[in-house]
Amino acid sequence: MAVSIQSEKAPPEEKNGKTRERRNRNDSVIDEAIAVMSEKGYAATSIQEIADRVGVLKGSLYHYFSSKEELLFRIIEKSHQDTSRISAEVGALDLPPLEHLLEHIRRTSEWFLRNRERAHIYFTEVRNLSGERHAEAIQWGRMFETDVSALVTAGQENGTIRDDLDQRLVTRYIIGTMNNLRSWPSRPGSKKQFGNDQIVDAAVTLIADSIRAGSD
Amino acid sequence: MAVSIQSEKAPPEEKNGKTRERRNRNDSVIDEAIAVMSEKGYAATSIQEIADRVGVLKGSLYHYFSSKEELLFRIIEKSHQDTSRISAEVGALDLPPLEHLLEHIRRTSEWFLRNRERAHIYFTEVRNLSGERHAEAIQWGRMFETDVSALVTAGQENGTIRDDLDQRLVTRYIIGTMNNLRSWPSRPGSKKQFGNDQIVDAAVTLIADSIRAGSD
Amino acid sequence: MAVSIQSEKAPPEEKNGKTRERRNRNDSVIDEAIAVMSEKGYAATSIQEIADRVGVLKGSLYHYFSSKEELLFRIIEKSHQDTSRISAEVGALDLPPLEHLLEHIRRTSEWFLRNRERAHIYFTEVRNLSGERHAEAIQWGRMFETDVSALVTAGQENGTIRDDLDQRLVTRYIIGTMNNLRSWPSRPGSKKQFGNDQIVDAAVTLIADSIRAGSD
Amino acid sequence: MAVSIQSEKAPPEEKNGKTRERRNRNDSVIDEAIAVMSEKGYAATSIQEIADRVGVLKGSLYHYFSSKEELLFRIIEKSHQDTSRISAEVGALDLPPLEHLLEHIRRTSEWFLRNRERAHIYFTEVRNLSGERHAEAIQWGRMFETDVSALVTAGQENGTIRDDLDQRLVTRYIIGTMNNLRSWPSRPGSKKQFGNDQIVDAAVTLIADSIRAGSD
DNA sequence: GATGAATGAGTTTTCATTCAT
DNA sequence: CATGAATGAAAACTCATTCAT
């Protein structure tokens, strides 16, 4: 079942020179911010660089966000919304715990791979938020963890997931593995690399084989 | 079998003499740099902040390193040296591939957990190096990967490691899991958290159960 | 004797038609500008803030004035016109110097109190004008001073105002006292504060008692 | 009795070119800040302009203060300290209320005239402070007012100050007059202007004649 | 070794103003 | 009239680095 959420880059329209462009650059700003920030990290990314890539003066960017931190927040917020929605969609399937967990991993992993850059920011840059925004993002992370945690516990209780390992360690193992998918070999254009489907399949297989009851 | 490599923060010995003091100060600079950088990230860490924690004016830090980047390099270099040594020590045991790999994972993971902050920097801040230093650190990372990769391949060849999954994916899975150990639940002082040994045991168990031949 | 000049904020009439609306908006811009500028000062007031209060986007404000400085100039100009008119009206009464001066103080003070915010700007923000506008406003201030100064001199010459103090010092004393009336205690709604009439009476009494010939 | 407090500008040492100057520019920074801010107002004063006058790059100024607002605070704080000290010195003379008040006015006025620029900032720029600093400065202003207010009340009670006018209005009148002394005609170099002593004498005479009991 | 004033180039952010729609 | 994207210049502030003392 295909997941419908999409966050790909807006199509790069040609600038036709004549009139000063008035289109909405909101998506473009976010996209370029994601690209630079995921490559260099939030702190090492300058507003100047984003502006250069968008093709406006740096002051102009402040029409699209009120501060660099708010820009980061919006990127993270969108990731949270997407993954939350996936979580809800999987929940609606009403599967038994282990199948539920594996489907959750599968779809979330697909999203992470399709949105590698955004996901990277989601996982690594929360510490650059402050105050209210930081608290909220931390809360989101906890929700994400709780979703997995609850499924692991349920699987242990109905005997489908091994219970010789503490639920919290298993949860962290699963989330950590998903976090790292972005670094699994997949440079497109390289000779023999892997498609997102192959990576997801491998990850789900490995996780399933390690947590299934009776593994030990 | 205990691993002898130690990189913990220098014990806060009382200043009992010039020599000791000087020695401590040098270590202290590195230690505080590691502490701040692992918390805030390299780019968001200011020399001022390190100086404040060391208890010295920021100009004075330049007696201990020649640039912020060189400081980062030294931190990463030391991590490389430690993990390389571990790799060599395990190699000297002359174990069969799977056992060799698991022992490698075990000891390296122990080091990562004992040196959480330094390891975090090692894994995330290489992109802040430039030129020669960047190239060298990239090379070290490749060496680290190659060590694991070779063992996986050997294990697949002698039939002890599953070969239905590409060697590169399995390698990335293993390394990724090790990378993430620092975030496994372990706040010391908290009531029911986990010691480093428990975490390592769990990680090795999970990895072993997922990559062993015959899992599928 | 009631003074007829009125510069109070336009009453918040309901928008009952195009014409009325347009008229209101124009006044509203001035009124809000006066409110913000008197509170924060001209330099610390942003066009954005005025626009927010008017309920219009900042670009739209430029339909009502051509520059921030021109807006300030108009505010000051109106103050000058009002006080000039008062000065002329009092002159038309044809009173002897001391009585003339006191009536001038009385009516001008009433205007200052009724237009506290505008008067504040009139007295403190002239330095933010430049070029021609600055010169003109300075000239207005000089005219204001000259009006008082001439009356003081005349009073000294006919023996009704003390002449042991230089006319210029007395003039500055009078003007300075009027300038400060806006800070005399008068928060409306507070229990025992003072009405504008009481403040004016007190000020005129104090000034009269201090400058009358025979005081020493 | 002469007041000993002095805040004049530091002597302008010649820069003798040879070595980069390492002297303490703290006073110089404050002095130039006072000069520019009193002329243009806090908000219209740029750090750049102060730096230009001090002769350093603008970034270097941040060795002397941590923010523009803190710089303003320090200027205002010093004014408060000076005027507080004067108030205490006069209090120690143990004079009857009216004499006490007039001596207070005399000495404080002298300070205002000798420190025209600083006093101007003290009276007009408090609104540019924020948070804790703003609260503290407001408190200082209230203390200043309370000092005068208490003397007026005491004078009314022992019958030496007129009591037909409310104590609060008289207090504001006095403070307002002192505030305005800086604009009394005194440009040095101009032909027939006035020395500080003459201005203070005139002000004390005018105030005394207006508030003394029996004036009416 | 340590200091701390100074640099110089950078950062994020603000803001009056313009103008095509 | 009103919009709102964009400008361009300047603002406050940061920071790695240098260096005379």
From TrEMBL, chains A, B, C, D:
Keywords: DNA-binding, Repressor, Transcription, Transcription regulation. GO terms for molecular function: DNA-binding transcription factor activity; transcription cis-regulatory region binding. Residues 46-65 bind DNA. It comes from the Bacteria. Residues 23-83 form the HTH tetR-type domain. Residues 1-27 are annotated as: Disordered. The keyword RNA-binding does not apply. InterPro entries: Homeodomain-like_sf (IPR009057), HTH-type_TetR-like_transc_reg (IPR050109), HTH_TetR (IPR001647), KstR2_TetR_C (IPR041490), Tet_transcr_reg_TetR-rel_C_sf (IPR036271). The keyword GTP-binding does not apply. Residues 10-27 have a biased composition (Basic and acidic residues). This is TetR/AcrR family transcriptional regulator. It comes from Leucobacter weissii. The lineage of its organism: Bacteria, Bacillati, Actinomycetota, Actinomycetes, Micrococcales.
